[in-house]
Amino acid sequence: MSQSFFNPFEELIFDEHFCFLSGVLTTENIPVFPQWLMDHFKFGEERIEMMDKSKTYHYSDLTLPCSPKVKNAFAILDEKVQKAYKLGYEGMASLDELLLFQWTGRMVYGLLYYEMQYERNRLLRLGEEFALSAALRERFGHFHLMLQSIIEPISFVGKKPWSIVVFPLKYSADIFSYRDDAINLMFSFGVNGFGFIACLQDNGIIGEKQKELLDKMKGHTLHPVQFEELYARFHYSDYILQYKPEYKIENCESGITIEAIPIEKKGSKPIFGFWDEDIFAQLLANYWSVYGIEREDILRFQRPMLSFLENPYSKDFINPEAIDLPY
Fold it and tell me: Which span out of 117-126, 168-177, 195-204 was modeled with the highest average pLDDT?
């Protein structure tokens, strides 16, 4: 590309003096999680673990160095999302997917930033060099470039790089549920009124894989246990995806355009690997632990796997109102 933007994954720059998005020197910062969100659900003083479980932070202590330009751009975005949030499902569903990508991407990248910083510092104490594989540098670099669309002349054409689904969801009031996988660039968010799931760099293939189920959901307000199962399906599908998402990135007079190249089967290698019910059941059990549902309850001897989304025999969508579990 003749026109290039800051890419921290080229030199592995995760320094508090440089804006996380633009790379310019700065003394300002923004919280990884929007302040209004932490205030509304009062989780700022709760703790979050790094992936290796040996380091925790208060949510409110997670901040990203940023320039005034970036800070202002995310303040405007936060205001739009907060306004849509107050309108519930209809408000969130009306948001352009790019806004949801940018809003979600800021949180996912923030957690990724802390993982990178933590691992770099850990290795430095051991006298070892911090390095990332070429594949991860490329993947995270593409993600960072896409996130810069909030401040730079970067636009998306044709097929989008993400799968984002928004749906009605019923929770008890003031409950906030979110899950993330920063390394695999995934995020889920659920409150009373709506939920959404975002695979931020799958070129839409996971949304296509789950399309039949998503179509069956239309017109229903999901039970939280269904929400968790849906995210588990997206998450596991990402795990068994066998092709690397690729992009067509071009310069134009107005900036840079990004087009996701459709993921297609090549030769005999399927797009998704084998769906292992044992592994999926363990993942699902982790998500359903709040209901006391364990792996053994999901993998039932001589019976179909437990699901709260589809009847295992007819494949009909299960009416959320028929589920006798708490919200």
Answer: 195-204
The owner of tokens 């997206």 is 234
pLDDT digit string, tens, across residues 258-287: 999 999 999 999 999 999 999 999 999 999
Dump pLDDT digits (tens) for 218-256. 999 999 999 999 999 999 999 999 999 999 999 888 889
Q: Report which of 66, 204, 215, 54 is spatially closest to residue 125, judged by C-alpha positions.
A: 54
The residues spanned by each domain of the chain are 1-155, 157-327
Integer Cα distance of 28 and 19 in angstroms: 8
The candidate with the shortest Cα–Cα distance to 2, out of 274, 262, 251, is 251
Helix or strand or coil: residue 306?
coil
Task: Kindly give, in sequence order, each residue whose CB lies less than 8 Å from that of residue 70, ignoring residues fewer than 6 positions away.
Answer: 19, 20, 21, 22, 30, 150, 151
Q: Report d(CA 109, CA 94) in Å as an integer.
A: 24
147 alpha-carbon distance from chain centroid: 13
**What pTM was computed for the model?**
0.94
Helix residue ranges per DSSP H, the chain: 8-11, 35-41, 68-86, 88-93, 97-125, 134-147, 205-209, 211-217, 224-240, 277-287, 295-298
Looking up tokens 């006391």, which residue turns up? 292
